[in-house]
Design a protein that fits this description.
heterodimer, A: 76 residues, mainly alpha, 3 helices, 2 strands, 57% helix, B: 308 residues, alpha+beta, T-fold, 8-stranded antiparallel β-sheet, 3-stranded antiparallel β-sheet, 7 helices
Amino acid sequence: MNLKKNLAAKVGAAVAGIAALLGTWALVHTNPPPPAAADAPAAAAAASATPARGKRVAAAAVAPVTRKRHTRTHVS
Amino acid sequence: MSPDPTTRTFPAMGGTVDVQIVRGDAAGARAIEALFASHERAMSRFDPESELCALNAAAPAPFHASPLLFDAVSEAVGWACITEGIFDPTVLDALEASGYDRSFEQIGPRGGVAVASRAPAGTPQLWRQIALDYDHETITLPVDARIDLGGIGKGYTVDRAIASLGSHANAMVNASGDLYAAGDGPDGDGWYVGVQDPFLPEQDLVVLNVNDRGVATSGSSKRHWNIGDTRYHHLIDPREHASSASDLLTVTVVGLTATQADVLAKCAFLLGSAAGITMIERFDGAECIAVTARGETLATSGMAEYFA
């Protein structure tokens, strides 16, 4: 009984370890590395040259997911 | 089962006011209608008997104002200070010069008669010369300055209407698009506010879920008219003393009060997409969504929190 319990615990630990390794691998490969220090000034210059604007919003992002409405606002 | 709110709809301030009070009584809604009527009598520029018209006629002599008018003008001047004159309550001459010299229902799409504005572009901001005597509640306007409380007056009245219901009100007051939603709404999950799509007016661009917030929309798509081949609208750029040439079609602001939302929506519109949205980002508690004339939809960084 104890042997079976130990085996199950060891298999569980091994699976958890593999999952953690896969998670780390996915994080590293889906996020780009930070820009090199030498690139930073160029990036800052480009940002300041771009007019400050609001975040563009895709139609899908604002499409209502609810039919609920109590009132409307419109140009007055 | 949520209770149906007490509702009341009535005409005021050139549009329609919609009141919804959860677990409220009809007396509260009737009191709000009376409040709108009294504010309109005091602040209308289209009623020659209004107190505002008397104030404008008195310039440059000191005018002893009622507590209501004194407070409303103080708030308007305060917003002019905060926005460094982008919101300017003294652009009435330019507004009338562009043809908006009577209520919009009377103007129609052909517009009034455009005349030369008495205040050419570059004129020093006259609001800076308005003297407010808080001890005696007198207002002194400089020569040639006349005040218009059209937009801010609606937001101001909405805020006072909500305040009249007490600090724990669960209610919504919508004055032709300038609104405040107090409390958790009829179902306890907030108030749902559709924002009209300027390109498809029958549809909503987005639905906002708000509580204890003001919401207002500014834009040029409704109150506009043509004189000859020239198109005018009611949003006067105080830097040009003419209808704004903004690249925006509409701006909707969620703010801490209906007054703040109304003023900031107008200012963001006048500043245009780049500077306007940057300005809104500076105000705690204010967010906006804007639509450009080219059809782009832009928003401040925190606006998505209100998307339903």
